[in-house]
């Protein structure tokens, strides 16, 4: 017997713990306080960086507590789960009671209800109950809401309400948080995120995910046709543009130039412009011509890579200067001809004529450096994201319902008085914004009182 | 740069309005407060013109964009919002004593703005999005509501202390009754909270569109969540546990301190994705 009694009480106690608003308040405070910690300690940095900042013992302690990646730690997850369980239990506990109240409103203004309402007015009229009940019902319908009429022996009750949806606002808001968490979980389980660098002209079919520990197959190919960087006249970056092609089943199915804030999407996988850089070293573009000006060929010289010219020798670009002796960009070239000592000279981009003065059969002119770029793409698939947006939309709707609607109720009771006249009581209450309701009630009072006079 | 001249004039007007409201409270002269209201209205006109002018000038410079993209612009926009929000409250509650506590917030924000770079800079690629408008505007309307709430909470604390001591003389005697103040602390928050919520959501939507992730626990995001949690705490404590008056006022002030940290502290002290907001 004793066991039977204790068992439910323990469950009750656990249940009471999870449905308490005190727990909600404590969880909110703890979540806020611990979140601050994660903004002070920079998250997900390489260990060397933490060693520079913290003493060894502090590093070990913080590492044990997962403070370097705390938002993904088990204890933070535990807090979020506790928060969600608390939220769900509160809803399960209170929602049916609220629903009952909404479905079966107190349509009769009895003594105890009358006492609890601060807004009330009383007056007397000559005539019959039903005559006045009809008049007041019409007045309420016109200026408030159509009342429900209950006849109870010697009394007639009118009950009207508006804004009942405001009672559901808090539940819609709480539900929205749960939906957002479900969306986040779906995204984490069924989605992936990764970064990949694609040099111009090259293509990828896989991206590294989970910090590079796993390769994710895309199921199609993405090629970077070209990358370009636009700048404002001041030199600040204006746009990073990547011309991308999606190749699926051996043919190009989609081509789009993406910029930051305008990604490409194919089969639920999104490609975002995230970064860019130089793919490999730069090559120097050098035009070769005969003395008379007839062009021979264009050379693309990678640093120190020898390039042979038939019947002439081997050419190498060995040095580059941004501003050579005040004349702008220049390239140092070394020419090795068979059986001769190698010669070295500079060619200046802005002075193509200068090389003519060198006694040689060919003239070189420097056309500038060109470098192949790579585009850094953020690749993401998140099947939960629409669930998250649904939750967000519900949250906004819930907040508006909870804060800007008010459940307003008005009662009228008509009873036969001892002097034979009809005794009328008008009373009202509002779930929120009582000051505004007081004004509305005053108007209603004069309107209803004047009805049928 | 005529917009900057207009903003400097706005700063001056906010200063004058603050001084008038404080002076009215000190001298117990309603006429001075009425002058304060007219200065606020004038400041609203001038600052709105300044924002429009700045927007127009950015188009003249060939980089047309909404003027809410760096610290200077966000500060003037915040002050602009506080001023407008205040005028609405003053009109609705028919009490000019709020001005002495709210308008200095707008004034000091503008003074702080003057010390920042006021030139119109082109938008970096990350900010070139229509989400910018929805995100920044909703966040700052929320911040302005929280600023008003905190100013009124301060009034509440002063008034409540006096009421406890059962004196109604002096400057504090002119403040509205504690019941009104307590109600306004709450009402400003129920305006601010949905706006902050929409601000966070539009920020998440934008982040998802720009970076492929709607939430990455970057310090700015985290602090906006902290602010949200503090006001969620306020609402729950008030509605279900009846925390009114002093305790509610203190949470409102804590919430606004968290808001300032989210708005300025993160950019000036911490680093993260929102770093462009700090220059």
What can you see in these coordinates?
- The complex is a heterodimer of chains A (453) and B (279).
- Chain A has 453 residues and is α+β, with helices and mostly antiparallel strands.
- Chain A is built from 10 helices and 20 strands.
- Helix content of chain A is 37%, strand content 36%.
- In chain A, the strands form 5 sheets. A 5-stranded antiparallel beta sheet of chain A has the order 1-20-19-3-2.
- In chain A, β2 and β3 (155-162) form a beta hairpin.
- In chain A, α5 (74-103) runs antiparallel to α8, α7 (129-143) packs across α10 and α8 (166-190) packs antiparallel against α9 (385-404).
- The two termini of chain A are 69 Å apart.
- The model of chain A has no long low-confidence stretch (mean pLDDT 87).
- With 279 residues, chain B is mainly α.
- Helices cover 76% and strands 0% of the residues of chain B.
- The radius of gyration of chain B is 19 Å and the shape is flat.
- Chain B starts with a helix and ends in a 10-residue tail after the last helix.
- The interface between A and B is large, with 47 and 44 residues.
Distance between the termini of chain B: 19 Å
Mean pLDDT of chain B: 86
Give the percentage of residues in beta strands of chain B: under 5%
Q: pLDDT average of chain A, as an integer?
A: 87
Interface with most residues: A-B, 47 and 44 residues
Tally of separate helices of chain B: 8
Structural class of chain B: mainly alpha
Principal-axes shape call of chain B: flat
| Alpha plus pi helix count of chain A | 10
Counted beta strands of chain B: 0
The major β-sheet of chain B equals: none
Q: Give Rg of chain B in angstroms.
A: 19 Å
| Structure classification of chain A | alpha+beta
- Low-pLDDT parts of chain A are none
List how many beta strands of chain A DSSP finds.
20
Can you tell me the residue ranges of chain B where pLDDT is under 50 for at least 5 consecutive residues?
Answer: 275-279
């Amino acid at each position: 017997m004793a066991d039977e009694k204790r068992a439910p009480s323990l469950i009750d106690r656990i249940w009471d713990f999870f449905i308490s608003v005190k727990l909600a308040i404590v969880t909110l405070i703890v979540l806020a306080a611990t979140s601050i910690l994660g903004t002070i300690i920079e998250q997900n940095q390489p260990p060397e960086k933490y060693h520079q900042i913290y003493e060894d013992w502090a590093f070990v302690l913080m590492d044990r507590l997962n403070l370097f990646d705390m938002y993904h730690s088990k204890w933070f997850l535990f807090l979020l789960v506790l928060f969600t369980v608390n939220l769900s239990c509160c809803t399960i506990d209170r929602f049916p009671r609220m629903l009952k109240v909404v479905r079966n409103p107190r349509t009769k203004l009895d003594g105890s209800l009358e006492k609890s309402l601060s807004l009330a007015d009383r007056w007397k009229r000559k005539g019959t109950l039903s005559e006045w009940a009809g008049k007041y019902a019409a007045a309420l319908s016109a200026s408030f809401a159509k009342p429900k009429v209950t006849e109870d022996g010697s009394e007639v009750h009118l009950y009207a309400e508006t804004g009942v949806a405001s009672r559901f606002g808090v539940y819609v808001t709480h539900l929205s948080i749960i939906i957002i968490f479900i969306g986040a979980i779906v995204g984490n389980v069924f989605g992936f995120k990764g970064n990949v660098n694609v040099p111009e002209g090259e293509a990828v079919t896989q991206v590294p995910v989970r910090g590079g520990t796993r390769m994710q197959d895309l199921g199609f190919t993405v090629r970077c046709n070209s990358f370009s960087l636009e700048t404002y006249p001041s030199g600040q970056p204006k746009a990073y543009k990547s011309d991308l092609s999606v190749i699926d089943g051996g043919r190009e199915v989609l081509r789009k130039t993406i910029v930051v804030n305008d990604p490409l999407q194919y089969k639920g996988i999104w490609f975002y412009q995230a970064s860019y850089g130089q793919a490999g070293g730069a090559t120097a573009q050098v035009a070769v011509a005969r003395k008379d000006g007839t062009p021979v060929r264009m050379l693309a010289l990678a640093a120190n890579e020898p390039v042979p010219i038939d019947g002439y020798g081997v050419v190498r670009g060995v040095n580059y200067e941004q501003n050579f002796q005040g004349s702008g960009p220049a390239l140092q070239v070394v020419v090795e001809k068979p059986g001769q000592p190698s010669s070295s000279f500079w060619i200046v981009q802005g002075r193509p004529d200068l090389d003519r003065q060198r006694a040689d059969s060919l003239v070189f002119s420097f056309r500038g450096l060109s470098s192949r770029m790579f585009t850094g793409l953020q690749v993401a698939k998140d099947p939960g994201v629409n669930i998250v947006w649904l939750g967000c939309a519900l949250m906004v709707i819930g907040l508006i319902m909870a804060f800007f609607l008010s459940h307003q109720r008005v009662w009228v009771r008509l009873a036969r008085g001892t002097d034979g006249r009809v005794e009328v009581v008008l009373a009202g209450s509002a779930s929120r914004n009582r000051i505004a309701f007081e004004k509305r009630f005053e108007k209603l009072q004069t309107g209803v009182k004047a009805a049928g006079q | 740069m005529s917009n900057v001249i207009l903003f400097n004039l706005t700063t001056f007007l906010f200063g004058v309005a603050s001084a008038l409201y404080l002076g009215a409270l000190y001298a117990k002269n309603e006429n001075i407060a009425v002058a304060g209201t007219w200065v606020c209205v004038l400041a609203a006109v001038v600052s709105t013109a300044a924002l429009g002018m700045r927007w127009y000038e950015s188009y003249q410079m060939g980089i047309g964009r909404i003027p809410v993209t760096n610290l200077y612009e966000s500060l003037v926009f915040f002050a602009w919002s506080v001023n407008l929000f205040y005028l609405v409250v003053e009109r609705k509650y028919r009490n000019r004593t709020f001005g002495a506590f709210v308008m200095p917030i707008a004034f000091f924000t503008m003074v702080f703005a003057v010390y920042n770079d006021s030139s119109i800079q082109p938008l970096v690629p990350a900010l070139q999005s229509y989400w910018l408008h929805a995100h920044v505007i909703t966040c700052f309307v929320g911040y302005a509501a929280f600023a008003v709430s905190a100013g009124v909470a301060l009034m509440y604390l002063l008034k409540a202390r006096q009421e406890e001591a059962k004196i109604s003389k002096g400057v504090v005697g002119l403040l509205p009754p504690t019941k009104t103040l307590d109600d306004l602390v709450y009402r400003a928050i129920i305006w601010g909270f949905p706006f902050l919520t929409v601000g966070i959501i539009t920020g998440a939507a934008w982040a998802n569109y720009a970076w492929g992730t709607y939430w990455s626990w970057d310090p700015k995001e985290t602090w906006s969540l902290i602010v949200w949690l503090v006001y969620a705490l306020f609402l729950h404590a008030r509605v279900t546990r009846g925390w009114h008056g002093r305790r509610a006022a203190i949470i409102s002030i804590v919430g606004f301190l968290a808001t300032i940290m989210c708005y300025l502290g993160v950019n000036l002290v911490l680093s993260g994705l929102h770093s462009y907001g700090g220059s």
